[in-house]
Amino acid sequence: MAQAAALRVTRQTVGAIADGAFKVLLAAFYIAGAAPLGRLLGTSAWLMVISGVALLIGGGIEIGYTRSRSMRTYTQFMIAYDSGWVLTALIGFLMARQGSSAGGEVWMGYQTAAPLVFAALLVAAAPARMASDPQEGNH
Question: Residue 82 is inside which H or E element, if any?
Fold first, then answer.
C-alpha cells in the first residue's frame, strides 16, 4: 500500500515538473519567435517577449518548488491555471472570429499574468509536510 502511494506521488511530481518544463520551453519559443508569432496572433512583439519572460519565471519557480510543496497544492493550482488558459483561448478565438483584433492580446495577456500569479501562490503556499517528520503530529 505504501509503495502504491509513493508511486502515485512520484507520478504527480513528474507531472508537475513536466508542466513547469513545458512553460519554460514555451517561454523560449515566445521569446525567440516574438515578431512572427506576434504578427500571427495580432499582438505586439513586446507582449510576446514579456509573456515569454513571465512563463520562464513561472515555469522555473514551478520546477523549483516541486520538492517543498504538496502535490495537492500543485494539482489545484495547475487545474485553475489550465482552466483559465482554455477559457481565455476560447474567448480570444471567439473575439477573432467576430472580427476583433484583440483576441490574441487577451490570450497573451492571460499567459503573461497567470504564470506570475501561479508562481506567487506557489511561493506563498505552506510547505509540504513530510510523512516521516516526527514533529508532524505536534503542530
Answer: helix 71-97
Q: What is the pTM of this model?
A: 0.81
Is 69 in a helix, a strand, or coil?
A: coil
Please list, in sequence order, all residues whose beta carbon lies within 8 angstroms of the beta carbon of residue 102, skipping any fewer than 6 positions away.
42, 95
Q: What is the pLDDT of residues 42-56, one digit of tens each?
A: 899 999 999 999 999
Residue that the C-alpha cell 505536534 belongs to: 138
